[in-house]
Amino acid sequence: MKAKMLLDGGRPKVGLAELKKILEQVGIEVADKSADFGVVVGGDGKFSRYGRTEDIPLLFVGVRSKTPTGSKGFLAGAFFDELPKVLEEITAGRYRVDEHRRLEVLMNGKSQGEVFTDTYLQRGAESTCIRYRLKVRGEGIALDDAAIGDGVIFTTSAGSTGYYSYPDRIKGESMNPAGYTRIGRDRVGVCHVNPTYTERTGSGEHPLRYTIPWGCTIEASLYRPADARLYGTIDGRGGVKVSMGDRITVRPGRKLTRIITLKNLKTDK
Fewer Cβ atoms within 10 Å of its own Cβ: the N or the C terminal residue of the chain? Predict the structure, then answer.
């Protein structure tokens, strides 16, 4: 078998040489081209990044951290200290490949790419709250929201344990780092970020977070000028600038992200 090593280009959690040694010890050849699968070592941010850019099956490998701000690896299929045993399972064929659908993101009708986990419209550094509208359209569904807040998140099932789950972690006066929501693969999650106000046209409702059926199309736009950014579609930390008149569309993508899941090995997560 051949494997592609996929690490953080700036501050990798493990070194290339260390990962390569482990792969070769179990008889797996390292290759950038014609690889049978990819080994992604990092946190959920790297998993999300390679999940939207790679088409080969991916094994997500987390690195345990004792620091409070270290990656929690909610998407990890295994941890780095378990990797030799995990790779032996893979070479023995004791694994399956799960397919996850992606969301496509467009600005003014031009595709910005597809996302494996989530994308979000959020205020930039030069803005306070942003004011925006959402239109959700699908079979038998027509929702129109207006909101004032930090922004809005759109997530797949794979991304639902991340930013989308912030309301679960903030209950009462404490924050539970392990608390999160999982939504089904046939749903898309929509979550307003720290809103001061939301309103659903014609309903009297003030939604914070909800899911919609897969297949719906979501349109988002600003209704007052602000420093707003679209995140999740590119690697840059600055995101994509969104101005008045711009129309953000989120809809089902065309590609799949393939994730390796071990059949028999139970990892200690």
Answer: C
